[in-house]
Design goal:
- It is a single chain.
- This protein has one domain: UDP N-Acetylglucosamine Acyltransferase, domain 1.
- Helices cover about 5% and strands about 35% of the residues.
- It has 2 helices and 22 strands.
- The strands form 3 sheets. A 9-stranded mixed beta sheet has the order 1-4-7-10-13-16-19-21-22.
- The protein is globular.
Length: about 220
């Protein structure tokens, strides 16, 4: 455990009584950026290590060169255990919200960017090299100077497994008990439960129905 950064992030985010419980534990090489107005809110009992940053590694990347990124200017709402693996990047903008259900797990250089709102239900698993973002970053205007690509929230249900090298783009809602196949680009809602979904953009579709999976 990275003791110095564990102490630092807890003291920056929480009052002394909560900070001394060390709800966040930091491991390995990590870049911490906690804007003063940024916050972490717990809806569950606060225990030591309920959030773990940078602990888990995957065999697809060299852990010697990994650096986990935690840049929080907005609000993270935590409903239970959260594990952010080594090399992942969490970026929550000033007025944005990132909501994480119990037993949330993300690993292997995956990225979550919230400029508006990103919500995960419980028991969600995000594999390596996944990009999740509720924004296009740059503004686009039509011929009448009308802003046409505003940020839109992302909602992910309970027990969703997002396969490696996938992208979840703005404005998407994903149902419960869904598996997103590797390499999928999700640009439209997946409202069915118990399905495997794959494909790119508008060509994405349900590959199999009536499934469940074990986290």
């Amino acid at each position: 455990m990275n003791v110095l950064k564990t102490i630092l992030i807890n003291l920056k985010l929480f009052s002394i009584p909560i900070a001394l419980r060390f709800p966040i534990k930091v491991y390995g090489n990590i870049k911490l950026s906690v804007v003063r107005r940024g916050s972490v809110v717990f809806t569950c009992p606060v225990k030591a290590g309920i959030i773990k940053l940078g602990q888990n590694y995957v065999g697809t990347i060299d852990d010697k060169y990994l650096r986990t990124v935690w840049m929080v200017g907005g609000t993270i709402i935590v409903h239970g255990k959260v594990n952010v693996g080594a090399g992942c990047a969490i970026n929550v903008d000033g007025n944005a919200v990132l909501e994480l259900g119990d037993k949330f797990f993300i690993t292997g250089r995956s990225t979550i960017i919230a400029r508006k709102k990103v919500v995960f239900g419980k028991q969600c698993l995000v594999s390596w090299n996944v990009q999740i973002m509720d924004t296009d970053f740059h503004s686009i205007f039509d011929s009448s100077s009308l802003y046409i690509n505003e940020d839109k929230p992302i909602y992910v249900g309970n027990k969703v497994w997002i396969g490696c090298n996938s992208s979840i783009l703005k404005g998407v809602t994903i149902g419960n008990d869904v598996v997103i196949a590797a390499g999928t680009v999700v640009t439209k809602n997946i409202l069915s439960s118990g399905v495997v979904y794959g494909g790119v953009g508008k060509d994405g579709n349900i590959l199999r129905m009536g499934i469940t999976w074990k986290p």
